[in-house]
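Exercise 7. Predict the joint structure of the components listed below.
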Amino acid sequence: MLIELNNIKPTYMSDSEISESDIYLQENVQFKKNKKYLIKANSGHGKTSVLNFIYGNNTNFNGSISYNGIFRNNAFDLRKSKISYVFQDFKLFPSLTVFQNIQLKNTLTNHKTVEEIENLIEEVLLLHKKDSLVNKLSLGQKQRVAILRALCQPFEFILLDEPFSHLDRENIKIITNIIVREVNKQNASLIMTSLDEMNLLTFDKVLNL
Amino acid sequence: MLFKLQKRTLVVSQIVGYALTIFVGITIILVTTQFYFDIKPLLSQQTDMFKSKSAVISKNISVFKTIDKEKIYFTNKEIKELENQSFTKCISKFNTATFKINAYSKKTETVPVFYTDLFFESISDTYLDVETDEWKWEPTLDFIPIIIPENYLNLYNFGFAESQGLPVLSKNTISQIEFNIQVSGNYKFKDYKSKIVGFSNKVNSILVPAEFLSWANKEFGNLSRNRTSRVLIEFNDPSDKTILEYFNENNYSINKEKLEFSKLVFFFKSAMFFVIFIALVIIILSISFILLSLNLIIQRNKELFLNLYNIGYNYNRIAKFYQVFISSITVLSIITSVIVSNFIRDYYLEKITNLFDFTLHRNYILILGLLLMLMLIIAYNILIIRNIKRIVIPRNEI
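Solution:
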C-alpha cells in the first residue's frame, strides 16, 4: 500500500506556525511499501496528529490523504487488516488482564494463536503478569502490552507513536527485534514518531516535522 | 472479552428498574385493553353503552290523566322543545299500531294452544340494541319478526312460571317457537307467521320493524289515532344533571335506573381510558428512563467505546451487546406481562361468568404484547446504534 499526504496541515495550526517541515504543507509526501520511516520533532509539533490523520481518527486537517490512490475521509475499514497503531496513550482497557487486552484485538482478526500470544508475552518478559489487570502495571509494562496488541493483526503499515518513551534500553532492544521481525514477516512498512534519533533501528527515511 | 468489558458498564439497579416499570406498564395496558374488549359486548347487552346514552321517556300518568287520556300524548310543541334542549342529541318517536292484533297458535307437540290480544310499536332501527339478520320486513313477506323486552322473559321465568309450576324458558327456546299473528281493521284482516327474534334491554315495548308498522297502519289502522306517547331520547352526555331537573319540571317519566346505569357505564369507560392513559405514561416514562440510562452509560463509557473503535471494533459491534441486552430484558418483561395478564384475565373472567351470561371474546393479549415488543425492540435497536455511532465517529465524518 502507498500512503500519500498532499498539502496536509492541522486545522488548529496556522501557516506561520509551520516552518521547515518535511510533511506539513508539502505537496506530496509518500510512505511506500517495505520502508521504515521516522518522524522526528520536539513535543507539541504535531507528531501524534500526523499518525492520527493517517489512521483516520482525527480529521481536523486541511489537504488530503490517499491510500493506494484512494482518498478517504474515514479510514476505519483499514484498521483491521491494513494499518495497525501503537497509541502514545496505549488505549488499553484497565478492567481487563494483559492477555485479555491482547486477545480483545486478536478476536477481531484471529491473526495469532493463543500460544503465539503467550510466546510474545514471554518474550517481552511479562509472562508473570499475563493474568494481572492492566491498571496494576507500570507505564513501561503497559507500553509493551500496547505494542504486542498492535502486532496481533495483519497490517501493511504499523504506526508507532513514541513507542519506547517508557522503556529502558534492554526492553527497547527486545521490542525492536519483535517489531522488525513482524514487519518483515508481513512485508509491511513502519512509521514511527520520536523526539530524537533512534540508534537501535535503521530507517529508510527520517522526516522532520 | 468484549462481553466482559461491556457487562461492567451496566448498572443493575437501572436495568431492574426498567424491567419492573416496563412490566407494570405493559401489564396494565394489556389487561385494561383486553378487559375493554371482554366487557364491551356485556355492556352493550346490558345497556346501550356505545350507540347510546339514551332513555325512553313518557308522561307521568296521574288520576286525572286516566280520565283525560289525551294528556299522555306529546304535542308537537313539546317534542320540538325536547329536541331543542342542550342535552338532547336526537329524538325518535315511537310508532304505535292503530289496528287490532291477535297472536295465536295451532295445536302442535311443542307449543300449547294460546290466543291473546297484542299491541305493536316500532322505532327507528338505529336505536335498537338487538342485532339480528331476521329483523326485516317487506310487503311480500308473510313473516313478522318481533322483539320483546328482556324484562318480559324474566317476569315469566321468575314470576309466572315459578308460581304456576310451568317450565322456565331460555332465550334460545323462545326464539325457536313460531306462532301466528292476525292483524285486522278497516274490515280487512291478514295472517302472518311470527317469531321472537330478540330481547331488548333498552326499549320496554313489543317491537316490529318500522316498515311493517307504517304499512299496516295505512292498511288496517286509523291514521288519525297515530299519536306519540313515548319518545326515545339520545343524550349528548347522560351525566348532565339538567336532564333529571328538566324531566322533573315537566313531569316526564324516565327510567332513572337505566340513565344511572348509562352514567355508570360512561364513567366506567372514562375510568378505563384514564387507566390506559396512566399505563401509557408509565410505559413512556420507563422507555425514557432506559434511554436516559443508556445515554448515561454511553456518555460515561465514551472513552471505552472510542478505544474499542480505535482498535478496530465498528459501532455496530459495540452496540450489539446493548441491543441484545435491552432487547432480552424487554422480551422477558413483556413475556412475563403476557403471562401475568392472562392470569388476571382468567381471574376476572371467572368472576364475570359467575355473575353474567356472556360470550367469551377473542384474547388479544399475546398479539398486543408481541406488537408492543416488536415496536420497542425496533426503536431501541435504532436508537442504540445511532447514539453509539454519534459517540465514536466525529460528526463531520458521519
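Discussion. The mean pLDDT of chain A is 92.
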